[in-house]
């Protein structure tokens, strides 16, 4: 892996990440292909939407189809027909999301499979072995995603466990691909700094911010990013895990983040919530039933260039799979276009002005926190 920092505007960064399966221009958003697919969207459609790198999930792929099946294809790329970079999460988030089904101890996490009830033990060593077999361009250490709310003492205990697992992950990782460490510590700046310092001593190719967007107030999330991102190594990529909305992307990039992922664009698409340059459109609303308007006149995606709001409303009301697919294509393209514009604005040193223009276009624009410029008239 090679990371080049091309420009920095305040804390916001423009970069280029070279991986085994291609080049990724940053800042970038990564759609989630949890089971080795982005629901309802083909690899060709993802490429047309501007996707440079996908996220897969070690936990779910371990359960189905199983590592042995994917190894027959020499890794996840060939198995799913995707020739561009892939990042895999180690399964640490499932420790958090399936908390009622698992038991955490020093060795790892013991849980029952949500598929068939089998007893499974996932350890840092096993998570690294699986990711090596998947041949993902970027692998993540096995960590515990600290929940919210939690006491500071509880957050520190969780963070220290993640650091010990990070050291074991580094020692067990046997691949030429990149391994990223994950900064934990809840919303406590001193714990975040201690976590980062411990990870830097171990040494990783990149560093991620984990344990956010798990229920904490949005101002606390953004403040945590603002305080820790600039302290992360300058010459390494910075990845914010599991975030978020379009405004989250804009504000996270402003605070120094290079990479983000979230299920939101595709999950919202399947529920008829579509992101556009004028704000969120709820395609299920009756007002769209006979509309001949494109979803977003400023969007060049396949959906917007070929179909009306009325047709998308009809597909949704009928429960047609095509509707979910077309909606997902648009939302993914919107997120990737937002990041393309962000990179252009950073290259021209116009990020703040660009962000304000985006906010001004949304009918439901959130207040840009810690941003004191006035909206354009």
Can you describe this structure in just a few lines?
By secondary structure, the protein is an alpha/beta fold.
| Strands, count | 16
Helix percent band: 40-55%
Gyration radius, rounded: 20 Å
The CA-CA distance between the termini, in Å, is 44 Å
Structural class: alpha/beta
Question: Could you tell me the strand content as a percent range?
Answer: 15-25%
Strand order of the largest sheet: 4-14-13-12-11-10-6-5
- What best-fitting shape do the alpha-carbon axes yield? globular
Number of domains: 2
CATH architecture of the largest domain: Alpha-Beta Barrel
Top CATH class of the largest domain: Alpha Beta
Q: What's the pLDDT, averaged over the residues?
A: 94
- What profile does the largest beta sheet have? 8 strands, parallel
Helix count from the secondary structure assignment: 15
CATH-assigned fold name of the largest domain: TIM Barrel
- Oligomer designation: single chain
Low-confidence spans: 372-377
Please provide a written account of the structure:
The chain has 15 helices and 16 strands. The protein is an alpha/beta fold and 377 residues long. The model is unreliable at 372-377 (pLDDT under 50). The chain folds into two domains: 2-262, Queuine tRNA-ribosyltransferase-like (TIM Barrel, Alpha-Beta Barrel), CATH 3.20.20; 271-354, no CATH class. It has helices spanning 43-48, 58-63, 67-71, 76-80, 92-97, 124-134, 152-172, 189-202, 218-228, 246-254, 264-270, 302-306, 309-318, 321-347, 351-361; strands at residues 2-9, 12-19, 22-26, 28-31, 54-57, 86-89, 102-104, 109-112, 119-122, 138-140, 178-183, 206-209, 238-240, 259-262, 273-276, 279-282. The strands form four sheets. An eight-stranded parallel β-sheet has the order 4-14-13-12-11-10-6-5. A three-stranded antiparallel β-sheet has the order 1-2-3. The longest helix is centred in the last third of the chain and has 27 residues, at 321-347. The termini are far apart.
